[in-house]
Write a structure and sequence with these properties.
The protein is mostly helical. It is built from 77 helices and no strands. It is elongated, with a radius of gyration of 56 Å.
């Protein structure tokens, strides 16, 4: 509808016809459109303008226009005004035009329209000249002048009012009016009317009147209710800004340099602001200083604070100090001229006082944070406002019981913030106010306490469960607000309070309701961030550190109390900073630990909690290295901190949860360094010590009850641990950390090696492993002794879950479960006892056994899943569970220990009686204590005695089902050692003792299928691998185990009667290992006393050999561990002089070599060396240690004649072996698999044993052998395969015996030769001595490596002589061996050459080597530390044998046939051979005692080379390897027949001994016996011989 730019031209052309009416229509429609008023207005203007414009241009006549306009004018009321505007525009436009006609048209149009627009409107809008031309005014000039005058009069002329000095009566009346007594019914309206009258009457200045009203209000502040409405009403007559300007003017007056603005003015301004009579923005600009100046000042304060800090940390020399003080004085003088007041702060204070929080807040927002509240008056005013706001809520929930408190009256001001009635209200205003206060809440300790109490009350409500979901969400928000307030307000305020211990305690009341995670976060913020947020806090931090340094420098043991008080004072307000410094000092100087711990007794509870946080923060410091620079030891700072932790947590009631969780988190992350802390904490708090340096007395005490442990088991008499251990227990249970820590430690033991230890030094890995393990043992011990049965059972899952789900190693899993079983059994037993009252011992035992069955039955089922099913063929789950679930407490009562402690107490009581100085009442107390303790110990001993008897009864009943021996006894022992003894003996010192006792117990119980001999032999035969795979502490425990085992063996060895009584006819000492199901043996099957002594000698020899090997490797771990083990077994080993000397020399060499290189090894070696020397008087010569038989004829004969299979075997032995052989072919394979899958120690031993036997055999320096290990293992594996194929029915025992058989004769010869040399052939002996003396003079070095040994020449002579007798076969054998050596990739010397591979004496063989050879006949592999050893060697030998002779492996049936055919031949040959041998022996006795001696050495050497290296073909010396297999067989048969003859006489004993692989020299029994046996053998049936034949064949 709008006019489109111009009126259409057609309208103008046809104006009279249609144009006029169209235009009118347009104007009408525009006028009627009311919806868009302004648009319509413009459009009408436009239409009228276009019309007028056409007239000006001459397109339309002026009368036509005026006619139409007269119609249009009626459409709107303001149409004439619109028309006047249009004329005004056209007037300006036409006046500028040069064309006169247009101007004329315009004037004519206006004249024509004069009747439509009034004169006055036109006079207003048109130019004076135009008006003149229109005739509306006479002269334009006059008109202009007149208008100027009027304007001036209107706008610029001021009204004159009377001021004070001019009209004092009016003002006097005004002041009287305002100052009258306002208490009556005078209202502000009444007074306002009077004021108006006065202004009118006396012509008073209204602004001045307002000023006077404000002045009077200032003086009468109590009449707010009167003045505020008065001013409000008065302001209706003024302009709004007036009041603000007047106030601003007042403030300006006081802005002189020393001006001081009165508080009354601030108050008036505040009230007016509060009532919104003025705007803060308007007033703010009148106040000084400006915001920029405030900002500058704030920055300056921060810089000053930092400077102060710098000064405090700088070291200032005394001369500089005085200068600095003078400078500071000058500066202070300059500061005296103080700047004018900060009016903004004054106004802020007034606002706070009147309760106008909104305006106050907006002023504070304009300033730097906490700048305003750092001014004390403002802080106090704000605190007061908070007091008022929280009053009702505090009265309701915050006031402690019994406290009255002074109520606070609230502000009379209705506009003040609403008071808080609920916690939700706090959030709206109060928390905000507190945040603005920040650290300056410190100015009002009472408010501080109130806020804290409210927090406490809130936490109580927050932690109660009765809230709905919505409320809970609200509470969550409130809780986070509370934490914020604590962080930003409470803790910083505490910092600025001067050592207010009560506030600290009050705050702890709230803090202790927070979980420790929140608390520690708050402490962290406080320590690391808060102190940098404010200049004041920066200063306080510096001063605290300065003071802390001062105190710590002077802290000693002597002044602990005064220093402690100073520390306490300082800690109340700045604990984080102080403890941070103290801990940094402790990390540097560990001798500070004790005085610091003692001096911390004046701390508050909050401070103790902060201390715990600071300790954890120090421990977790990522910048600190946890290892020393050598990477082999844990850093001393960590050790110091751990030690401090233990001491401080024990002494003071500090919450442990955080620290324990920290350790758990570190373990989760696979870091075990921090276990040191747990170890220290448990040790100090629970009094449970873990140390490898325990004496045997202490160990013995540790096997008793709790009281005995406490009295005699620990180094420090750790007393009063009841409370601290209770605290530790509670912390673990409350936070569910007990089991997780155990499991994490158990898993981390392997983690140390396989995950953590990758880059680390082996020594450190060992240390960490030990630390982890020891802490586990210690921690488990703590849980066992402190947790109630219910707690324990509730937390520890069953054994199968522990092992299979949590992957806990078995030893650790049983360690954790053991106390549970014991608790469980005892509680069941008590229940049964209560159920029926029967006091007979039998009844009790029966109940005990019932309760054991109830508890252990599920365990028996559970353990089955821990191992492969094959394992349970040999040992029963019951035996396994029994072994792992019992402890030393169950097996024996340490009577000596109890007696020792009781005697100590008696001595103490006597000392108390004799003490004259002690007051009587103290004497009485002490005596009572000792008596009570004594009674406790005796009661405990009695209780343990009954318990042990019950346990032994239980074992007696169980024992028959223990060992199933479905395969072989050998295998059973393997499983027993592998799964029970070895893992447990290195678990803890007490477990080591337990293992040894358990073995003895199983022996004493006459357990079926348990071969004691085999077990001991396995343990002593080869300890190298076990020792090498131990950590330092494990080595110590392993040493203890060996020591206890040796103790038992030595006891049996020492006296024939003891031996007969404890071993004589026990099944463990049977030498014939029969098939399962037949365990009865006659006396002849038992190992007799003398042979047992041989066996013990063999074991001692083996230990020596292993020790020397380890010492010679040069490996750190080998040397360290063997020295530790040797030190532990010193009481019982070495007992034989020559073995002791060999060890002594080797250790001496270590001392020399390691002095500069590895001082720790040097120290160990020196220690051992000294102790070894002191033991020398107790050592005995070999012939006293075991009876060495005179050389018997049959010894040589046997060796010469016996074939490789049955060399010198007693017939019955071979027969038994043969029986076993067939039934157990499969077991051999099983055995292999199992041994290969053996655990840790066994595994290593198994893989490497062949190597060891090599070393044993060849007396080669074992370092070579170690290098060649890999090759051997490879070749060993290949051979194993071949063996499996070729000797399907090979039986471990039979084989083992075969090998033994061969070993033993040699050994016997050796011993016999010794004896002959010593007893009969005096002359040769003396010759030898002469030679030896010469040798010693020449070569002192070589002398070291000798004892009573022949020199090289005599050896060679002997060798030659020996070679002549058994004929050329020997040489061939040598060649054969050397070939085999080459095949196996070995670099060992050929048997014939007697050069010792020991590097230091190559020309003459060292005596040790010879000793080894001499006794080496013992090195029967069948009982080396694992079965795999014997297997691989035997199989090697058989396999090699077949390979070398290229004879296809015979099937069983074929073998039997061949054997039958050859039986007769073999008998004849054996007889002939025997005769020859006897002759030979006699000759040899006369002429070649030396060469006799040499033979065993040579043969053993050769045999060793064969056995140990690749040469496994086991021909005896006499047999030439080039002979056909048949000839071998024949010879074997002869041997067999011989041995079968032997069998029936005393040599049955020897046989048994061989079976037990004792390798004693029994075959040298008596020649006569042999001949008797021969005759008997002839009559013996062919069956026996067949069997012999079979077994020997297989051995081959």
């Amino acid at each position: 509808m709008a006019v489109a730019g111009a009126l259409p031209a057609e309208w103008i052309k046809n104006w009279e016809k249609s144009g006029k009416s169209e235009f009118l229509q347009l104007c009408r429609t525009l006028s009627e459109n009311k919806s868009h008023e302004n648009v319509t207005f413009r459009d009408i203007q436009q239409a009228l303008y276009e019309l007028a414009n056409h007239v000006v241009k001459g397109n339309l006549k002026h009368d036509q226009a005026s006619n139409v306009l007269s119609d249009v004018i009626e459409f709107r009321d303001d149409m004439s005004s619109i028309l006047a505007d249009v004329f005004c525009v056209l007037d300006i436009e036409t006046s500028c035009l040069e064309e006169k006609s247009k101007r004329d048209h315009f004037t004519q149009l206006v004249l024509a329209c004069l009747y439509l627009v009034s004169d006055t409107v036109l006079k207003e809008r048109l130019d004076p000249e135009t008006l003149e031309s229109l005739g509306l005014i006479k002269q334009s000039q006059q008109f202009n002048q007149k208008s100027v005058k009027i304007k001036t009069k209107l706008f610029y002329k001021q009204q004159k009012f009377n001021l004070l000095r001019e009209e004092n009566e009016g003002y006097a009346k005004l002041i009287a009016e305002l100052g009258q007594d306002l208490s009556g019914n005078i209202t502000s309206d009444l007074i306002l009317e009077n004021i108006k009258s006065l202004i009118g009457c006396f012509n008073l200045d209204p602004n001045r009147v307002l000023d006077i009203i404000l002045e009077v209000y200032e003086c009468r502040p109590e009449y707010d209710d009167f003045f505020v409405p008065l001013i409000e009403s008065y302001m209706y007559m003024c302009e709004p800004q007036t009041l603000c300007h007047i106030l601003g003017f007042k403030f300006k007056f006081y802005q002189e340099p020393n001006g001081e603005t009165p508080s009354s003015l601030y108050r008036v301004a505040a009230v007016l602001l509060q009532h919104n009579l003025i705007d803060l923005e308007d007033l703010y600009v009148h106040l000084l200083p400006v915001d920029n100046a405030i900002l500058e000042e704030h920055k300056r304060e921060i810089v000053e604070a930092k400077q102060i800090v710098r000064k405090l940390t700088m070291v200032v020399l005394s001369s500089e100090k005085t200068e600095e003080k003078e400078k500071e004085k000058d500066k202070e003088e300059e500061k005296t001229e103080k700047p004018p007041d900060n009016q903004k702060l004054g106004l802020l204070e007034a606002l706070l006082k009147v309760g106008d929080w909104q305006h106050a807040q907006s002023i504070m927002d304009q300033m730097p944070p906490f700048y305003a509240t750092s001014h004390k008056p403002i802080a106090i005013a704000l605190c007061q406002l908070v007091h008022v706001t929280i009053e009702p809520l505090y009265r309701r929930v915050g006031v402690p019981k019994g406290a009255k408190g002074s109520p606070i009256s609230n502000l009379q001001n209705k506009r003040a913030p609403k008071q808080a009635e609920s916690f939700e209200d706090l959030r709206k205003e109060v928390f905000n106010m507190l945040c603005y206060l920040g650290p300056h809440l410190s100015h009002d300790p009472i408010l501080f306490a109130k806020v804290v109490r409210l927090g406490k009350a809130f936490m109580k409500e927050f932690q109660s469960d009765g809230n709905k979901q919505e409320e809970k969400e609200k509470m969550e928000i409130l809780f986070s607000c509370l934490l914020n307030i604590t962080d930003q307000v409470l803790l910083p305020s505490l910092t600025l309070m001067d050592c207010n211990a009560c506030m600290s305690e009050e705050l702890w009341g709230m803090f202790k309701t927070f979980p420790y995670q929140y608390r520690y976060r708050l402490y962290g913020q406080w320590k690391n961030e808060t102190y940098n947020s404010h200049p004041l806090l920066v200063k306080v931090k510096a001063q605290t550190i300065d003071r802390a340094k001062y105190i710590m420098k002077r802290l000693t043991k002597e002044n602990v109390k005064p220093s402690g008080r100073q520390i306490g004072k300082l800690s109340h307000s700045n604990p984080t900073i102080l403890f941070d410094y103290i801990l940094s000092q402790i990390q540097k100087y560990d001798n500070l630990i004790t005085p610091v711990v003692d001096s911390l007794k004046y701390l508050t509870s909050l401070n103790y909690d902060v201390l715990a946080y600071c300790i954890i923060e120090a421990l977790a410091n990522p910048e600190k290295e946890r290892m020393k620079h050598d990477d082999t030891t844990i850093s001393s700072w960590l050790q110091s901190l751990a030690s401090f932790c233990g001491a401080v947590f024990r002494k003071y009631p500090i919450e442990l949860a955080g620290l324990l969780q920290y350790v758990a988190n570190q373990l989760k992350a696979g870091k075990s360094f921090d276990l040191l802390i747990l170890k220290e904490v448990v040790q100090k708090m629970a009094g449970i010590e873990i140390t490898e340096e325990m004496t045997m007395e202490q160990l013995e005490a540790m096997t008793g009850g709790e009281q005995l442990k406490a009295e005699g088991g620990y180094f420090g008499q750790i007393r009063n641990t009841k409370k601290s251990s209770q605290r530790l227990k509670d912390a673990l249970l409350d936070h569910d950390l007990a089991l997780p820590l155990c499991l994490l430690m158990a898993q981390q033991r392997n983690g140390v090696i396989f995950q953590e230890g990758g880059e680390k030094h082996l020594k450190l890995v060992g240390k960490l492993y030990d630390q982890c393990h020891d802490t586990l043992v210690q921690f488990g011990g703590f849980l066992a002794s402190n947790l109630s049965t219910e707690d324990y059972i509730k937390r520890v899952p069953s054994i199968d879950v522990l092992c299979n789900e949590f992957h806990t190693p078995h030893d650790a899993a049983f360690f954790l479960s053991r106390p549970m079983y014991a608790h469980h059994i005892s509680s069941k037993y008590d229940e049964l006892k209560k159920a029926e009252k029967g006091n007979k011992q039998q009844h009790k035992v029966h109940k005990y056994i019932t309760s054991c069955e109830l508890v252990m039955a599920p365990v028996h089922d559970a353990v089955i899943s821990l191992h492969l099913p094959k394992v349970w063929d040999d040992i029963s789950p019951q035996f396994y569970a029994t072994f792992w679930s019992l402890t030393m407490y169950d097996l024996a009562v340490p009577h000596n220990s109890y007696d020792r402690e009781v005697n100590k107490l008696k001595v103490q009581m006597k000392a108390i009686d004799d003490n004259q100085e002690m007051p009587p009442n103290k004497k009485k107390k002490e005596k009572e204590r000792c008596t009570a303790l004594q009674d406790k110990l005796l009661e405990e001993e009695k209780k343990q005695l009954e318990h042990v008897q019950r346990v032994l009864q239980r074992l007696k009943l169980e024992k028959d089902n223990w060992l199933l021996a479905k395969s072989t006894k050998n295998e059973t022992i393997t499983k027993f050692l592998q799964l029970c003894i070895f893992p447990r003996c290195i678990f803890s010192a007490i477990d080591a003792v337990y293992c040894a006792h358990f073995v003895e117990l199983v022996h004493q119980q006459k357990t079926p299928n348990f071969s004691t001999l085999l077990c001991y032999d396995r343990v002593f035969s080869d300890i190298i691998y076990t020792v090498a795979s131990c950590t330092e502490n494990e080595a110590s425990r392993y040493g203890r185990f060996l020591c206890c085992m040796l103790e038992t063996v030595t006891r049996w060895h020492s006296d024939r009667n003891i031996y007969e009584k404890e071993c004589g006819n026990y099944p463990g000492f049977l030498t014939i290992l029969r098939a399962t199901g037949f365990d009865g043996g006659n006396k002849a099957d038992q190992l007799d006393y003398e042979n047992f002594r041989h066996v013990v000698h063999k074991w001692h020899y083996k230990l020596t050999k292993a020790s020397v090997h380890c010492l010679e490797t040069g490996e750190y771990t080998h040397i360290r561990n063997i020295l530790i083990v040797l030190t532990k077994i010193l009481p019982w080993y070495p007992k034989v002089l020559n073995l002791g000397q060999a060890l002594e020399r080797r250790v001496h060499k270590i001392c020399q070599e390691e002095k500069e290189k590895r001082p720790d090894l040097y120290a160990l070696a020196m220690g051992y060396s000294g102790q070894l020397k002191s033991r020398k008087p107790y050592m005995v010569p070999e012939n006293e240690f075991h009876h060495k038989d005179p050389p018997a004829r049959n010894a040589v004969a046997a060796t010469v004649q016996n074939g490789p299979g049955g060399a010198g075997l007693p017939a019955s032995l071979t027969i038994n072996a043969a029986k076993l052989e067939e039934s157990t072919a499969e077991e051999t394979d099983k055995l292999k698999e199992k041994t290969q899958g053996a655990v840790k120690v066994i595994n290593k031993a198994a893989n490497a044993t062949p190597k060891v036997t090599t070393s044993n055999g060849n007396s080669a320096s074992n370092s070579k052998i170690i290098k060649e290990k890999d090759e051997k293992e490879k070749s060993g594996k290949e051979k194993d395969k071949e063996k499996k194929e070729k000797t399907p029915a090979a039986i471990p025992e039979a084989k083992a015996l075969g090998k033994d058989g061969k070993d033993k004769p040699k050994e016997e010869r050796a011993n016999k030769d010794d004896k002959t040399r010593e007893i009969k052939e005096k002359t040769p002996k003396s010759d030898k001595e002469k030679e030896k003396a010469k040798k010693e003079e020449k070569t002192p070095k070589e002398e070291k490596s000798k004892t009573v040994v022949t020199n090289a020449e005599s050896k060679f002579a002997a060798e030659k002589e020996r070679e002549k007798e058994p004929s050329r076969e020997k040489d061939v054998a040598k060649d054969m061996k050397s070939k085999e050596n080459i095949k196996g990739g070995e670099k060992l010397s050929v048997a014939g050459s007697l050069k010792s591979p020991v590097p230091r004496s190559e020309t003459s063989e060292s005596e040790r080597e010879q000793k080894r050879r001499k006794v080496d006949t013992h090195s029967s592999p069948s009982h080396s530390s694992t079965v795999k050893d014997s297997l691989s060697e035997l199989k090697d030998s058989s396999a090699k044998h077949y390979i070398n002779h290229t004879v296809p492996a015979l099937s069983k049936s074929k073998e039997r046939e061949v054997e039958k055919k050859d039986l007769d031949k073999s008998r004849e040959r054996s007889r002939e051979r025997e005769k020859k041998d006897e002759k030979d022996r006699k000759e040899r006795k006369r002429d070649h005692s030396n060469s006799d001696r040499e033979v065993p050495q040579d043969s053993t050497k050769r045999r060793k080379e064969e056995n140990g290296t690749t040469g496994s073909s086991k021909h005896s010396k006499s047999e030439s390897p080039s002979d056909s297999p048949h000839s071998n067989e024949k010879e074997k048969e002869k041997n067999k027949s011989k041995s079968s003859g032997k069998e029936k006489g005393d040599s049955i004993k020897t046989e048994k001994m061989e079976k037990s692989s004792s390798g004693s020299k029994k075959e040298s029994r008596h020649d006569k016996e042999k001949t008797e046996k021969k005759e008997k053998r002839d009559s013996a049936g062919g069956k026996e011989e067949k069997k012999h034949h079979k077994s020997s064949d297989k051995h081959r």
